[in-house]
Automatic annotation (TrEMBL):
The keyword Cell cycle does not apply. Residues 2-67 form the Chromo shadow domain. GO terms for cellular component: nucleus. InterPro entries: Chromo-like_dom_sf, Chromo_shadow_dom. Keywords: Nucleus. This is Chromo shadow domain-containing protein. Its main location: nucleus.
Length: 67
């Protein structure tokens, strides 16, 4: 969403991260805005604009073993 591009953080405007995609060695993050719109951004943008949401997304996929 262009109105958020200059904001230091997008976290208040992002509803959720839908997926992380590897496209020929480059990571992209698919997200849903609170407006319901969907967008794909590069991982560097995700790291700088919504790092806490990205961390929570990855934490949701962590699995620990007893070994």
């Amino acid at each position: 969403m262009s109105q958020f591009r200059d904001k230091p953080s997008w976290e208040p405007y992002v509803r959720k991260i839908d997926a992380v995609e590897d496209a020929n060695g480059q990571l992209f993050v698919h997200l849903t805005w609170h407006s319901g719109d969907h967008e794909r951004v590069d991982s560097a943008t995700a790291h700088s604009k919504f790092p806490n949401l990205l961390l929570k997304y990855y934490e949701g996929y962590l699995r620990f073993s007893d070994s």
